[in-house]
Design brief:
single chain; 5 strands; three-stranded antiparallel beta sheet; alpha+beta
């Protein structure tokens, strides 16, 4: 596999994860803009909390995918929050072991846990 992201310039795993997350969130942002329009998609520039206590992390993609009516009958936005989570490639942890994962492990788990086809 060719690396789309140049990891050789990054000095540690924290930087590699941060840049990977940023790159993937930008890709998601661009695709969501294509589908829902630029006026309905944004990347949160810094950690925020709305007036009613909803918090969003920096770099999170937020998209208004449409409107619906809430329980009181008011028109409300349907908001999707998307943020890439980069899985560790090293076993780490002090109190709790965070196990490393690789793509082939995920593919194998999907195959092993595939539901049986119904006739």
């Amino acid at each position: 596999m060719n690396n789309v992201i140049n990891f050789s310039e990054m000095k540690n795993d924290t930087m590699r994860k941060k840049e990977t997350r940023k790159f993937c969130n930008n890709q998601i942002y661009e695709k969501m803009k294509d589908v829902f329009g630029e006026e309905n998609v944004l990347i949160v520039p810094y950690e925020i909390e709305t007036e009613n206590g909803i918090s969003f992390s920096s770099g999170t993609v937020i998209c208004c995918v449409g409107q619906t009516k809430n329980n009181e009958g008011y028109d409300v936005d349907v908001i999707v929050e998307i943020s890439a989570k980069v899985k560790s490639w090293n076993n780490t942890g002090t109190k709790r072991l965070i196990k490393a994962v690789n793509y082939d492990d995920v593919l194998e788990a999907i195959e092993l846990n595939k539901p049986e086809a119904k006739d």
